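Please check our next protein.
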Amino acid sequence: MASASRQFVRAAARASTRSAFSVAPRQAFRQNGRRYYSSEPAQKSASLWIWLTGAAVAGGAGYYFYANGSPAGASAKVVNPTKADYQKVYNEIASRLEENDDS
């Protein structure tokens, strides 16, 4: 019985010392093997604020055009052209073509 308990103690001691000695060099190797390329942390992206600012600007522009009706260049006046209007345009185009005729 005493020999069995001695063998158990010896086996337990061997196992614990082996694991301690085998783990310690690996951990030290891992720590020494790290490469520290970066000396500063990664920069945070401000894209959320850019998106929110863009959405606010687009919303403001949309409200401005909605509240003021149509943009400044658009006309709400309805035009009913007559035959005389078309004739004036035709005459103007014909006169410009005759002025610039190089042949």
